Amino acid sequence: MRKYFTISFLLLLTICLPLSAQKMIKAVDLMKDLKAGKDIAIKNATIEGHLDFTFMEEKLPDLPKRKRNWWGQSDNTVKNLIKSKVSFQNCIFKDDVLAYIPDGDNSGYTFIASFYNDAIFENCNFEGKAMFKYSKFEREASFKGAKFEEDTTFKYAEFDNNVSFSNAVFEESATFKYSKFKDGVSFRAVQFKEDLNIKYTKVTGNFDIKDMKVAYDIDSKYTKINGKSFSMHLLEKQ
After folding, report:
1. DSSP strand E in 35-103: where?
2. Which residues of 110-120 are buried (b: 16+ CB within 10 A; e: fewer)?
3. How many Å apart are CA 1 and CA 138, to the nearest integer?
């Protein structure tokens, strides 16, 4: 009986180990590594704190008051280029992941981050916001199997290489308005549990939407897939 208990305990421990194997990492430590030019390669971790790729808090003290051009409009965009390779696999982001911060009510500036090198977020759970508005992805990018629980936006985002969102889940409305996919995109088996906005989106190359599901409406006005208008028949044929 004791031998059976020991075996059962070891079996239970083996089953539970993967659940407790998630290490805890502070977002501020990752930002220090990025500032130092180090590549980021994280697996099976929980990220605590806001991961701000724009480095807004660091940049704010050195910025002048909101500038105005001679025609009266504000030149208020502050851009940051992430040159390090960034790879997160099977990670949980407890707080916001930000590559776009509109700080208009405070400083008057808008902060944007783009990725010069690889930007991988595979099988990751975004429990907070995931903001990539205006971000440019110049190398490999992947959001395969990602789960977006709150607000997310890829509005105006540009992908120079093929990007995959296959098997991703968007719990809230997903925005890809004005996005550009220059070498194809995969939305294979993606679940959009609310609306999908791809208005003005342009795709060149492979457009994989096999088994893609959208719970409510798709706004595809002026969307171009290899120069042709998007049609709901594309979904019906899957």
Report:
1. 40-43, 45-48, 51-52, 77-82, 86-89, 92-93, 97-98, 100-103
2. bbbbbbebbbb
3. 61
Is residue 220 one of the residues assigned to a domain?
A: yes
How many other CB atoms are there within 10 angstroms of residue 29's CB atom?
Answer: 12
CB of 80 within 8 A of CB of 34? no
User: Using one digit for the tens of pLDDT, what is the confidence trace for 191-226?
Assistant: 999 999 999 999 999 999 999 999 999 999 999 999
Closest CA to 96 of 81, 85, 111: 111
Long-range contacts (CB closer than 8 Å, 24 or more residues apart) made by 144-148: 144/168, 146/121, 146/122, 147/171, 148/172, 148/174
Instruction: Report yes or no on 184 lying in a domain.
Output: yes
Residue numbers of the domain that contains 123: 35-59+78-236
pLDDT at 6: 45
Q: How many domains is the chain partitioned into structurally? A: 1
Residue 16, domain member (yes or no): no
Token pair listed for 123: 């099988």
Contact 127, 106 (CB under 8 A): no
Q: Name the least confident of 72-76, 99-103, 114-118, 175-179.
A: 72-76
pLDDT (tens digit per residue) in 6-34: 444 444 444 444 444 679 999 999 999 99
Closest CA to 113 of 65, 56, 60: 56
131 within some domain: yes
pTM above 0.90, yes or no: no
